[in-house]
Amino acid sequence: MTIRISKSGKSTLTVETPVMNATGILGFGDQYRDLIDLSKLGAFVTNPITYAPWSPATGTRAIPMDSGMLLHTGLPNPGAKKIIAHNREVWAKLGVPVIAHIVAHSPEDMASCVRIVDREEAISAIEIGLADDISPAEVEWFLHAALQRTEKPVLARLAFNSTSEHAKAAIDAGASALVAYAPPRGTARDRRGVLTAGRLYGPMIKPLVLRMVGQLVRALPHLPIIACGGIHSPQDARDFIEAGATAVQVDSAVWISPRVIETIATDLGGTMSTQRHDHGSVDDAGDSEIRSYFLGKAPDKKS
Question: Dihedral of the CA atoms 295, 299, 38, 263 (nearest 10)?
């Protein structure tokens, strides 16, 4: 079964299963190849790509929390040209559409980066990462800068604190789909006692995002919505589909149990019948392991 996850048009993005990784989770395609069969996903989303190289963040980058983690990386990457040159052969062999996630400090940088990405045949679509403090008017500026330089489908990833005005601005600018949402930002003390800012990941995000996605779907019933946030099991993913999402992106669950994304993809793809929790299925064991990790408990070996 083919699923359309972007608006119909000259270039429509279709997938075989409505599950993909979120940006920043699986690198640029080669880091997890020995752990995950990426061909089982509906699409592969790259780590963030910028026009010029970005350096990694300094100081503490990851802080474990009671039910998740806070992460700050600085989005390091060597720039669009080097990333494409190094990874185009890997992308061509994945067997699934590749979505390039692009971030930029200005519409000019966005235009320059998209121009480079647009020329790469191994890339099927573009996902634009919108900043947390961006205004609705700036949403339109950034998306116009991208859309004027590509005929590939352009997805807009909304910030966690986005309003309906931000979503409307993305649609008015011509976005083919919305990704809802980027991980929220927070602040926590690291082991040295220093307050550190970053993005929050973990199961605790799901109830918040699920409600927000439901509201977005009701407001925009005809636009594809790709849900992202706190998905750590097949049931989590099904909850978002039931809420009206067209597809889902899986993030931090992969860092704890890499192959859980395969399980979720297979489950939503309809090629595997899931078992009840009390039967101790492989799916449930993976889910138990992930949730136990984030809650700071030892995994239940009985599963």
Answer: -100
Domains of the chain, by residue range, sit at 3-295
- pLDDT tier at 60 (50, 70, 90 boundaries)? low
Which one has a higher pLDDT value, 256 or 249?
A: 249
pLDDT of residue 10: 66
DSSP per-residue codes, 217-271: HHH-TTS-EEEESS--SHHHHHHHHHTT-SEEEE-THHHHSTTHHHHHHHHHHTS
Alpha carbon distance 115, 113 (integer Å): 5
Q: Of 253, 271, 272, 269, which Cα lies nearest the Cα of 261?
A: 253
pTM here?
0.87
- Residue 43's SS3 state is strand
Omega within 30 of 0 (cis) for the link into 201 = no
Q: How many CB atoms lie within 10 A of CB 103?
A: 22
Phi, psi (degrees; rounded to nearest 5) at 90: -65, -45
Query: Which residues are CB-neighbours of 89 under 8 A, at least 6 positions away?
Result: none
Give the DSSP H or E segment for 140. Answer: helix 136-147
pLDDT recorded at residue 288? 47
Residues near 106 by Cβ (< 8 Å), separated by ≥ 6? none
Which residues does 7 contact at the CB level (< 8 Å), separation at least 6?
Answer: 153, 176, 177, 223, 224
Q: Which CATH superfamily is domain 3-295 in?
A: Aldolase class I (3.20.20.70)
186, burial (CB in 10 Å: exposed 0-12, middle 13-18, buried 19+): middle
Measured between alpha carbons, how far is 274 from 301 in angstroms, rounded to an integer?
20
Q: Which of 198, 201, 212 is nearest to 163 (CA)?
A: 212
**Amino acid in the structure at residue 19:** V
